[in-house]
Amino acid sequence: MKKLLAVLAATTALAGAAAAEEIKAFNIGLLGGENAQDRLNSNECLRKYAEEALGVPVKLFAPADYDGVIQGLLGGTIDMAWLGASGYAKVYLTDPEAVDVALVKANLDGSFTYHSIGFTRKETGIKTLADVKGRSFGFGDPNSTSGYLIPSVEIPAITGHSMQSGEYFGEVKFTGGHEQTIVAVANGDIDAGVTWADGQGNWEDGYNSGALRKAVDAGLVDMNNLVEIWRSKPIPEGPVVVRRALPENVKTTMIDLVKGLQAKDPDCAYGVAAGDTSGFVPITADYYNSIVEVRRQMIKSGS
């Protein structure tokens, strides 16, 4: 048994050394959705596990906007990230060879979708999108799937108007991210807005996972003061991607780490996945073809 343990230890050390020989560091990009420090805190456990697995320094990067992560992947300064579907579409349409799609977050029921959720404060008296006509409405980030791309397609189909200020909504604002939208609505800075959630579980908990759940966990909002006024069709959950130019063993090590995170450390997985989930499971790029096409068409139309 001692010999076996020695062999296993030596093999593990050699694997880590091999990864270290091929890369000097590894950088993980954290998409917007909550403030930078909370993003860093939620993913610190992943950083530590990655450093142990790779045997090289691992850093977390939490840029101010979605495009910071996107450009980091395209430019080679970020090696791995959990993107939204629209963010992945932008990466793919800019450089189809930049990243490999690896994993997707699975909901508790095993599905791989979530929703853009329109919401307001209970005191506004707003119950549907029709009640928001002429009032202020908030979106998160232009590169967000649920915070802009999908609402900008589905809401005009309902209202018959564009998303430009004064067309249907009195004023349209980009808040900068999901957390910012939630806080702006809760504080009365805007009348309504959109964010993301899996739509499963209880409203008062912020559903099982998503930006509302993270806001509840952070003590930023009381969901009893908010109401849902619109829900999108199911949206493909965004992919965990790795930079294609990385050595294969490095990619495999990181993919296996994230895939096994739920079993290894449920608390860590909760923070990384933004709530209660079944963890991350394998997915292919084909799953995102519809979102890539929507984004392609928006580029053509100049939206």
Determine the number of helices (DSSP H or I, runs of at least 4 residues).
11
Strand order, biggest sheet? 2-1-3-11-4-12
Dominant shape = globular
How much strand content do the residues show?
Answer: 15-25%
Low-pLDDT parts are 1-21
Largest sheet: 6 strands, mixed
Notes on the structure:
Residues 1-19 form the signal peptide. The chain is of the alpha/beta class. It is 42% helix and 19% strand. It is built from eleven helices and twelve strands. It has helices at residues 2-22, 36-54, 66-75, 85-94, 145-159, 178-187, 211-217, 248-259, 261-264, 266-272, 289-301, and strands at residues 26-29, 58-61, 80-82, 99-106, 113-121, 136-139, 171-174, 192-197, 226-231, 235-236, 239-243, 279-282. It has a six-stranded mixed β-sheet, with helices on both faces. Strands 5, 6, 7, 8, 9 and 10 form a six-stranded mixed β-sheet that branches. Strand 6, helix 5 and strand 7 form a beta-alpha-beta unit. Mean pLDDT is 91; it is low at 1-21.
